[in-house]
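Blinded run. Sample ID left blank on purpose so nobody reads anything into the name before looking at the predicted structure. Input follows.
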Amino acid sequence: MIKLKNILTEEEKFKAKSKETGKIVVYKSKENMEKAVDDGRAEPLDAKKAKPGEKEKVKGADLFKSKETDKGKTDKPKAEPKAEPKSKYGAKQKGIGAGEKNLKGPQSDDDAIGGSAEAEQKVLKQLRAIGPKDNVDLCSVSVPGTNMFCAGNKGIERADMPQLKSKVIPGGKADKMVKAGKLKIDPKNGEVNTEDIFKTMLEKEGISMSDPTPKKVSELKATQNQLEGSKVNMFAKVLAGEQPFPDKKLDAKALKGWQDALREPIIVSKEGYILDGHHRWAALVQHDVANGGGGDIEMDVKQVDMGAEDLVKKTNKFTKDMGLAVKKKKPKKESFESQILSKINEIEGCCG
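Blinded prediction complete.
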């Protein structure tokens, strides 16, 4: 009896509290009890109780949960930071769809592309004042401290620039390819896209064209010496998420589709001169100024391993051989300041 009593007394010494059930567990040896405590399955009976104000662990519950939660807090995980908008090829394009009221331009010189927030605020105001019927040549305006919009261009008029995306001339090679089912006409604009055919031709001649690669719009350069300001501002409005037309409203799906189309890759020379897509690039330049991120907006480019002049000549020959129509429209070369000053006054409610 004495031995049995001693054994029972000894066993009762090795007690611990189960963290899973909250019940007292009797262990046969001190070693077993200590192992359970070390493994986190149990805690000593003399463990310190929570001090006033501290969270008490719930029996059988997750060790990291408590009976009470702090006021205003929930057990829901924090939302992940919203990813910055990017193109499908990775170009950083912050502020797309943010709304013009949230795209306030550079607030400091560090946020400016060319280093002067004051100068770029003035340019942004002028650009946004261009209306649909204002026939303004945007090459008459510049962003101080940068090559934008047309500084250092190659002096080629818009009518003399090639268009790899254009309407077909009846009876031409492209027209015959459409009828044979080798080319498709876009029902939205009536144009065909011959970029892939052009790329194949270049590769056969040993000239490479890269896959779409992100590049800052501020590092790209205009080849032509004319840009339609009204068209650029309309495109910039779409990028900002605004309605482009005063007389009709696009639904969200149509607006998103247009944004995606405006951000499609463009073709450039090995020095970064634009071959086709000047107005889409210029709209992203305007967006870059409005975004105020110090020139952080990018565009996807397909870079051809040729100089600008040679590339234009070769592309013009290709489009002529294919039978693609040339877009003849030219903006008038009038003073940007004289045309837009009255528009700004109207917007700000000024007079005189």
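Unblinding after everyone has recorded impressions. Residues 159 and 186 are 22 Å apart (CA to CA).
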